[in-house]
Amino acid sequence: MNKEFAKMCYFARLETGLSIKNASSLLNICERQLNYYESGQKNIPDDIVAKMTKVYVNPELGYEYLKQTKTGQELALPTINMKGISSRTLQLRVCIKNVINILNKLDVIACDDVIDQKELCTFMDCMKQIQLLSGACVGIRLFSPIKKIRTDGNSTDFFDNINLNF
Predict the structure, then answer these.
(1) 90: Cα separation from own chain's centroid
(2) Rounded CA separation 141/22 (Å)
(3) C-alpha angle with apex 63: 3 to 88, nearest 5 degrees?
(4) Closest by Cα among 97, 78, 86 to 137
(5) Taking a C-beta distance cutoff of 8 angstroms, is the pair 95, 136 a contact?
(6) 18: phi > 0 → left, psi -120 to 50 → alpha, else beta; which?
(7) CB neighbourhood size of 6 (10 A)
(8) Which of 30, 41, 61, 123 could form a disulfide with 36 if both were Cys (CB 3.0 to 4.6 A apart)?
């Protein structure tokens, strides 16, 4: 992967309140290995990213990891806002308004089931707005409250009882 993803993993661990020692124990790897991963010196294997996603209660790690893979790039996954829930909600609201504003243009383009050359630029602008909306939706979906984990691996958060899977 890249140094940015490694840094994201490092900060995800810190936000969860885990030391290198506790995190490596929960991830079932040695501390040195986790240091290599977080510094970007070694690529993080898929199974470790999956464990980090769960242990750090951070589904964004998995999404960003997938986005950087060849498959993720081929899927053209949308960029998501990694900030707080209020920022993500505002972004979603703005994107919804933008898509509502372009719907009439999209209707005119699509009504004959053909996108001709003079409509192509407008159509691509519409698709860009839809892609941004998609990213805003994914950003809301992937948001999870930061959950502190005690050294014994048990959560200290009331969000444990809430099922965020849809």
Answers:
(1) 17
(2) 28
(3) 100
(4) 78
(5) yes
(6) beta
(7) 19
(8) 41
pLDDT digits (tens, 9 = 90+) for 63-102: 889 888 888 888 888 888 777 889 889 999 999 999 999 9
Global pTM?
0.67
**Strands (DSSP E) found in the chain:** none
DSSP, residue by residue, 91-124: HHHHHHHHHHHHHHHHHHHHTTS---HHHHHHHH
The helix (run of H) or strand (run of E) holding residue 31 is helix 31-39
Q: Across the strands, what pairs with 121?
A: none
Residue 153 has pLDDT above 90, yes or no: no
Structure tokens at 80: 């998501």
Helix axes 46-55, 20-27, angle to 10 degrees: 120
Q: Which tokens is 94 given?
A: 């703005």
